[in-house]
Amino acid sequence: MRLIWLLASFVVLASAGTLKDPPRQRYDNFSVYKINIKNKLQLSLITKVCELNKMYDIWKEYDEYSKEVHVMVNPDEVKHFQLLLKLYGISNELLIPNVQKLIDDEQFASARDSGTFGWTRYHELAEIEAWLDGIFEAHPTVTEEFTVGYSYQGRRIRGIKISHGTNKPGIFIESNIHAREWITSASATWFINELLTSQQPEVRNLAESYDWHIVPVFNVDGFEYSHRK
Ligand SMILES: *[C@@H]1O[C@H](CO)[C@@H](O)[C@H](O)[C@H]1NC(C)=O
């Protein structure tokens, strides 16, 4: 549901022509509840309510194993929500009292080690690209830049080839196809760094036996958007 909403937002933004830097959405006092689903009625009730009302956003869909749904609730709606849960006897637990606080904490951590690239926090596209530029500069003989193409919003989709010779089998890795899965570009950049700098024999062997083609951020527009929204 969130994905559809995200796509819809793209279309609206695109027609408004204000794409580059949408202001960051705030989530002050937005809370996240864990709902324990006991039966089909409760499940269809929660699903329908979240589908119809924009004040709700499902963070975790129901599955047979956990029997849980996690829902983010707009503070303007939270009283209604609690009433609904009470009325239908749905057991629940407050997981996150204030989503904005988590975002602030993460941004505080970012500010603390800003200016350095590492794997203790998530980086935005510009930082990843600057890091990539540094990598090309530091390892000119074994790296080569390539361009996959240009995104809908005109951003270049960049890749790195790491090769220690010709005629090696190629391996292709692309990350952040799903824009909000930030851990994937963090993993890819970490992996690039390992391939280039690790002295472990197993890693050296891997690095030098293949031609690596790695795209750390494939969905550049969505990635940028996910850092703002
Ligand atoms: C969030 O809730 C607190 C406590 O109820 C309140 O003081 C604060 O004004 C609220 N913040 C916003 C932005 O609504």
Name of the CATH class of the largest domain? Alpha Beta
Classify the helix fraction into a percent range: 40-55%
Largest sheet: 4 strands, antiparallel
How widely separated are the two ends?
Answer: 16 Å
Number of helices: 8
* CATH-level-2 architecture of the largest domain: 3-Layer(aba) Sandwich
- Low-pLDDT runs of 5+ residues are 1-19
Chemical compounds bound to the protein: 2-acetamido-2-deoxy-beta-D-glucopyranose
* CATH homolog superfamily of the largest domain: Zn peptidases
Question: Looking at CATH, which topology of the largest domain would you report?
Answer: Aminopeptidase
Q: Label the structural class.
A: alpha+beta
* Order of strands across the main sheet: 2-3-1-4
Care to describe what's here?
With 229 residues, the chain is α+β, with helices and mostly antiparallel strands. The chain folds into 2 domains: 72 residues, Metallocarboxypeptidase-like (Alpha-Beta Plaits, 2-Layer Sandwich), CATH 3.30.70; 107 residues, Aminopeptidase (3-Layer(aba) Sandwich). It is built from 8 helices and 8 strands; from the N terminus they run αβαββαβααβββααβα. A 4-stranded antiparallel beta sheet has the order 2-3-1-4, with helices on one face. Strands 5-6-8-7 form a 4-stranded mixed beta sheet, covered by helices on one side. 21% of the residues are buried. The chain binds 2-acetamido-2-deoxy-beta-D-glucopyranose.
What's the SSE blueprint?
Blueprint (H helix, E strand, L loop, with lengths): L1 H15 L14 E6 L3 H13 L3 E5 L7 E6 L4 H10 L3 E6 L2 H14 L12 H14 L4 E8 L5 E7 L7 E5 L8 H15 L3 H9 L1 E5 L4 H9 L1
Parallel strand pairs: 7-8
Antiparallel strand pairs: 1-3, 1-4, 2-3, 5-6, 6-8
